[in-house]
User: Which sequence fits this backbone?
């Protein structure tokens, strides 16, 4: 029944969680699978509209609230150039305090993570096929769970020695990498430039990873439509939002950012904040998790 629900969700949303086509890259970026919409524009005026200047509270509206040491959350609203309002949730992770894991879950309900005593935050990430097998590289605690593949996305989010980095598909991992997930597209390149010049016209809920403070901080960003279940911003709109300050008082956006999948797969759990729970519309076979640190021995 779970698989049938997932297949039904795919029929409802044209940007399924296991889709692997990516929009056109910006000039100089690694070639991706071309999937631009017929009316997509790369003109400066279109990019200006896509930046979402109508976001509530101005660019970088809202402030982070601490959850535990090294972990904070921001919730606000963003309004796109079409006037569509979106819930905007950002979880900020200090990688000197917390590590990340990939947990294989098969068809287990994502809601089970709400009550998991060892989970602080969990989100979806990484493409998968209809058999719920990973479509690209997954690494957790230094162990490869799935290999890198051409169809798994153009980017790799890699963490090594407490520093996050965005790498292009096909590049060598650092020798002490302990976490990696392949997905795409690369929304913000490592030089701070927007990574795509257009999108495929699809609007879907989104999950993205945002690297800050030279890799010492990692933001998980979830954007979902306030009115339409499973919907959200286009990828180009999301990229422009990520290029801006994410919170009040900040002066810059993401140093690099990677799309972590979306549509019916979008999911997030924040311990102690059930109101922030976002349930996927079908199975999510792999969860990206910030585990609760083990208590120190006395």
Assistant:
């Amino acid at each position: 029944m779970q698989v049938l629900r997932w297949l039904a969700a795919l029929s409802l949303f044209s940007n399924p969680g296991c889709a692997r086509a990516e929009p056109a890259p910006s000039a100089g970026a690694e070639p991706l699978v071309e999937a631009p919409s017929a009316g997509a524009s790369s003109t400066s005026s279109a990019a200006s509209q896509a930046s979402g200047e109508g976001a509530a509270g101005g660019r970088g509206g809202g402030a982070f609230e601490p959850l535990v040491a090294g972990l904070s959350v921001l919730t606000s609203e963003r309004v796109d150039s079409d006037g569509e309002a979106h819930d905007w949730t950002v979880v900020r992770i200090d990688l000197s305090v917390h590590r990340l894991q990939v947990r294989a879950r098969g068809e287990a309900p994502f809601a089970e993570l709400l009550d998991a005593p060892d989970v602080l935050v969990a989100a979806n990430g990484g493409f998968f096929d209809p058999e719920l097998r990973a479509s690209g590289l997954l690494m957790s605690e230094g162990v490869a769970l799935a290999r890198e593949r051409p169809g798994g996305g153009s980017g790799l989010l890699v963490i090594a020695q407490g520093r996050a980095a965005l790498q292009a598909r096909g590049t060598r991992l650092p020798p002490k990498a302990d976490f990696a997930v392949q997905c795409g597209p690369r929304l913000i390149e490592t030089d701070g430039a927007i990574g795509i010049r257009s999108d495929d016209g699809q609007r879907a809920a989104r999950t993205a990873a945002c690297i800050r403070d030279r890799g010492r901080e990692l933001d998980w960003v979830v954007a979902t439509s306030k009115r339409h279940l499973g919907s959200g911003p286009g990828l180009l709109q999301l990229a422009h939002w990520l290029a801006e300050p994410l919170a009040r008082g900040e002066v810059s956006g993401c140093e690099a950012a990677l799309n972590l999948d979306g549509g019916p797969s979008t999911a997030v759990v924040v311990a102690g904040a059930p109101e922030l729970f976002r349930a996927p519309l079908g199975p999510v076979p792999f969860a990206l998790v910030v585990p609760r640190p083990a208590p120190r021995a006395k």
Observations:
- DSSP finds three helices and 16 strands in the chain.
- The longest helix spans residues 2-12.
